[in-house]
């Protein structure tokens, strides 16, 4: 149900998304690119890739990088596809973060930007990411952080007025999800963005524990 609502919302927003959020997208994705330290030979999956701005950014530095983007909104993906059409090794697929249409152990790096708070089942999404990640791969997730007052207020407002909004998380809650999905966090931080806004980012690798540890 929530995924249908998100799909409708982003299909409606797709044509204005890049323009409306230009500054936010440019700041967050430049930060993510520097943080993620993606190597030229990595095969990258971008979960909830939106209009392909992160792909565009990565490809300006390395035009042969293999990247796959998935998103639940086909209209956002159509824009991503158009931006990256000259790169044959880049592809986009309509899919939910909780059901990735890829074989086990497919990717070296999985990134996801500004989307975790939309996932109706974040743990299922992380378990899917873990499944398609190669054993020595890493996930790098950036999202809004509810430790910042503005995000707390926005979370309350969006829960009332935006049916597509799911839930913002504190850094502690975010890390608990990663741990519950059997990831080991190797690097994490919170970053203030502008005067009020705050983000969190974490890099994590697949841990050794199986079955899953006790969860949230
Ligand atoms: C704020 S946009 C971020 C797009 C892009 N990552 C960026 O940073 O510009 C959120 C995106 O998440 C996608 N999305 C939300 N829930 C999703 C889900 N469960 N599975 C796949 N994509 C999802 C939306 O369609 C939308 O394109």
List the defining traits of the structure above.
216 residues, alpha/beta, Rossmann fold, 7-stranded mixed sheet, 7 helices, 7 strands, globular, binds S-adenosylmethionine, methyltransferase activity, Methyltransferase domain-containing protein
List the SSEs and their pairings.
Elements: H1 2-20, H2 22-36, E1 43-47, H3 53-61, E2 66-71, H4 74-83, E3 90-94, E4 107-113, H5 122-132, E5 133-144, H6 149-161, H7 171-180, E6 183-193, E7 197-206
Parallel strand pairs: 1-2, 1-4, 2-3, 4-5
Antiparallel strand pairs: 5-7, 6-7
Helix pairs in contact: 1-4, 2-3
Bound molecules: S-adenosylmethionine (SAM).
Residues 3, 6, 10, 25, 29, 48-50, 53, 71-73, 76, 96-97, 113-115, 118-119 line the site of S-adenosylmethionine (SAM).
End-to-end separation in angstroms reads: 23 Å
| CATH homologous superfamily title | Vaccinia Virus protein VP39
What binds here, in terms of ligands, is: S-adenosylmethionine
| Spans of at least 5 consecutive residues with low confidence | none
Give the structural class: alpha/beta
- The spatial strand order of the largest sheet comes to 3-2-1-4-5-7-6
Into how many domains do the coordinates divide?
1
- What general form does the structure show? globular
CATH classification, class level: Alpha Beta
Instruction: Tell me about the largest β-sheet.
Output: 7 strands, mixed
Output mean pLDDT: 95
- Which fold name is given in CATH as the topology? Rossmann fold
Q: What is the N-to-C order of secondary-structure elements (H for helix, E for strand)?
A: HHEHEHEEHEHHEE
Report the β-strand fraction as a percent range.
25-35%
Number of helices: 7
CATH architecture: 3-Layer(aba) Sandwich
Q: State the total count of DSSP E strands.
A: 7
**Overall radius of gyration:** 16 Å
